[in-house]
Predict the 3D structure of the following.
Amino acid sequence: MLISGLGSDSQSWLPVLDVLAEYFKLIIYDNRGVGRTKYPKGNFQISTIAKDAVCLLKELGIEKADILGHSMGGFIAQEIAIKYPQKVNKLILISTCSILSEKNKLIFENFKRILERGNYELFIREFYKLIFTKEFLNNREKAESAVKHAINYPFPVTAEGFNLQVEVINNFNSQSKLDKIKAETIVISGIEDILITAEEIKYLADNIPNVKKTLCLENAAHSIHTEKPDVFTASVLKCLNQYN
């Protein structure tokens, strides 16, 4: 099960699906507030979205799965492992942490304002500065192609949906519950990630009891699976002992 991050939906996994599908049955879906989902009324929490994922597994008749979460999806994955341990085979946490930093809260508040003003292209351009490497951003052709693709996407994140998800991650804190994660865990990050710090990654690795591997990938930033799909899939498959 692949769980996407803030403002992203199931289509964010497209660059890695073909390779991973050679080894696994894959479950991808849109979280509440993005993609093709309806916007829920009232407040909801990470625990609500985690329950959505567990209900989906039940609906599909899947007793247990490897759970992989990226960024906000890593919050959801942690919550599943804490509250529904019977549903988790292995836990893979990508570019994520246990609590959102005050710096990132301010950053995402600014992004909320950009979307509320209706400037979607500026939102995308500024967001990409946070999640991709300098190498990618300096390649004008690639960067502009990615921006154009996002602008033309038929299910873009809206101000309403983004605001809902920002409130959800602002309220997440797993620090006192990490010792309840019993699943074999893998933690992967990019050395050029400017959103999630090395200290935050180390905190996860030090406080989840059954962390088997921690990888910090060179020449990778926050959105490893979209920018470096080959590196991403190779790392995940190696960690899951699919090939050497």
In short: The chain has one domain: 2-239.
